[in-house]
Amino acid sequence: MRTASPASRALVLRGDEDGDGHPFLVLLTVAPGGAVVGEHIHPHIKERFHVLSGPIAVKLDGSERTLTAGEEATAEPGHAHDWWNIGQQPARVLLEISPPNPRFVTMIQTLWGLANDGKTNAKGMPNPLQLSLIGREFDDIIRFTKPPRPIQRTVTALLAPIARARGYAPIYPEYCAPHDHTDPDPSIVAHAGLLTGS
Fold it and tell me: What are the pLDDT digits (tens) for 105-119?
């Protein structure tokens, strides 16, 4: 993942290269005051997030709470959720994505690539033109809760042709290729093994 600073990054610990059906594992590091992407649902994916260092605020099905290191929450398919760093240090959160879907990783790469290039707001949201293309491309993976879905569909249908004419794309190859290789902290790897039962 491309990063603007070591304070915010996404590291895929296990993707789709094995094809063994194990959940994807992604380690997200979010800078103080940083957010993921705004409240959303995953229509067919369960997202379990385990806090390695925090604290973070989590909104799940309209209820907000704080999670600290060692705590976790799960968003079942179709359940609205969001989280953001409320601490003074970078927050590290291990995501477990099941069933594994390579398009989830592509979506993460796209959104985090834009964020680290300074092309999103403080909540990780791209501008409306860019978002219209991402929303249409990844509708099977992520759906934002605001505005209401019928309005989203109408607005994105109107904005998408303008976005393409202005050079925006739903996916950027430069974000999807690995940008670096790193050996994760052994304690994170061990914890990831515990999370997945592998």
Answer: 899 889 888 988 889
Domain ranges for the chain: 9-196
Q: Which token pair is 2?
A: 């491309």
Q: What CATH code would you report for 9-196?
A: 2.60.120.10
- Cα dihedral 44, 114, 176, 157 in deg (nearest 10): 50
Window from 51-60, 72-81, 96-105 with minimum mean pLDDT = 96-105
